[in-house]
Write a structure and sequence with these properties.
20 strands, 13 helices, ten-stranded mixed β-sheet, four-stranded mixed β-sheet, globular, alpha/beta, binds inosinic acid
Length: about 425
């Protein structure tokens, strides 16, 4: 019986959806604790491909309780679309609950995300334009609207009117853009409230009781360590904390209640959006990895920038998250290469840097120091036991452990549930 947090160790898109889907088989409850519909998980079940943005991937099992914690920002229209799409495909969704304390994304957040990104021009963050940043700004600025407000028509109307009065001044006077109509927003959100009311609950209470009862709980982080607003490549980050400690805050459990943390590492590195990326591969090799790995955003469809695995990043993620295990995904994408490279450290103005720097100026200038290992040619997508991987693939995984100090517990060799090789029982 355990509580396990799954986090991304890179810039998101590590394949956390598949790892949480795999681990969810043993969980009673699956929890999202931060982010919003900027995230995107692709999960393949049998012949079916599911793309989820807000709802925990545990929903694809018939018996798991799925929880959206207070740390998540919820776009009600997106949540309802996702629920309807799942129901239309015969997936029961009655086991979803959402925190009364979760903040709500409103149309003015999306609008502001667009206006700010457009205004920044070349200096843009490259956000998903889903209103995530502005919603978190309002949360911290104490003018956010929470699920519990959504359920009280009087409070909802008053807050939307007040907020839009302020936001409309910003839209018209600072951005020279059109204002939004408060009454139209109120009508839409009253409708959403009616549908979402039965799902809202005290998530902290539910989870703490479940922990008392010895249930297995899986906390599913969105994005990744380098997109963390505190520990990531600021300002090219998201506006929440995807790192493990946030699971406690974003779900209402104490930090002492977290038993284990698993870091998901893609066998190479990808990034969407702007910002420095030391091991980025320009040209043919980068294109080859992008095509073979299907590296296009689940949420925005943008091509992802691709590069070699950066162990300096994963080592940093191990420290920030207190990782117990690694889950290495998409190892099959590297099959067929003559050599594979892992960045072990950086060189900066003649000096060796082994720790991930805070300064983006430094990060933009560093040169990766690579270990070069022989590749493997055999197709590994049919391998079902770690021991049966080609020796070169095992050497690659062992080198990752040497460079990060964290054992590899899971290895992904394809998109299907059966294509996950397990060396340790993470809930055991
Ligand atoms: P935002 O979260 O939409 O504000 O975007 C901020 C940054 O985080 C941008 O670089 C996005 O591309 C990135 N980002 C947000 N969510 C994800 C994700 O789920 N995977 C990868 N990148 C993401």
């Amino acid at each position: 019986m355990a509580t396990v947090v799954v986090v991304g160790t890179q810039w998101g898109d590590e394949g956390k959806g598949k790892v949480t889907d795999y681990l969810a088989a043993k969980a009673d409850i699956v929890v999202r604790y931060q982010g919003g519909n900027n995230a995107g998980h692709t999960v393949v079940v049998g012949e079916e491909v599911f793309r989820l943005h807000l709802i925990p991937s545990g929903i694809l099992y018939p018996d798991k309780i799925c929880v959206i914690g207070n740390g998540v920002v919820i776009d009600p229209a997106v949540l309802l679309q996702e629920l309807d799409a799942l129901a239309a495909r015969g997936v029961p969704t009655a086991r979803l609950v959402i925190s009364e304390r979760a903040h709500v994304i409103l149309p003015y957040h999306r609008y502001l995300d667009e206006l700010e990104e457009d205004r920044k021009g070349a200096g843009k963050i490259g956000t998903t334009r889903r209103g995530i940043g502005p919603a978190y700004v309002d949360k911290v600025g104490r003018v956010g609207i929470r699920m519990v407000d959504l359920l009280d028509p009087e409070v909802l109307r008053q807050k939307i009117r007040q907020n839009l009065e302020d936001k409309n001044r910003l839209f018209t006077r600072v951005f020279g853009a059109a204002p939004l109509d408060a009454e139209a927003v109120i009508r839409d959100y009253e409708h959403y409230a009616g549908r979402l009311a039965p799902l809202a609950t005290d998530v902290s209470l539910l989870l703490n009781e479940a922990i008392e009862q010895g249930k297995n709980i899986l906390f599913e982080g969105a994005q990744g360590t380098l997109l963390d607003v505190d520990h990531g490549t600021y300002p090219y980050v998201t506006s929440s904390n995807p790192t493990a400690a946030a699971a406690a805050l974003g779900a209402g459990i104490g930090p002492t209640k977290i038993d284990r943390v698993v870091g998901v590492v893609k066998a190479y590195t990808t990034r969407v959006g702007e910002g420095p990326f030391p091991t980025e591969l320009q040209g043919e090799m980068g294109d080859q990895i992008r095509e073979r790995g299907g590296e296009y955003g689940t949420t925005t469809g943008r091509p992802r920038r691709c590069g070699w695995l950066d162990a300096a990043i994963v080592r940093y993620a191990a420290r920030i998250n207190g990782l117990d295990y690694l889950a290495v995904t998409k190892l099959d994408v590297l099959t067929g290469l003559d050599v594979v490279r892992i960045c072990r450290a950086y060189r900066y103005r003649g000096q060796l840097l082994t720790d991930f720097p805070a300064s983006l100026g430094v990060l933009a200038e560093v040169e990766p120091v690579y270990d070069e290992l022989p590749g493997w040619k055999q197709d590994i997508s049919g391998v079902r036991r770690y021991e049966d991987l080609p020796p070169q693939a095992k050497d690659y995984l062992e080198r990752i452990t040497e460079l990060t100090g964290v054992p590899v517990a899971l290895v992904g060799v394809g998109t299907r549930r059966s294509q996950m090789l397990a060396r340790y029982d993470i809930f055991g």
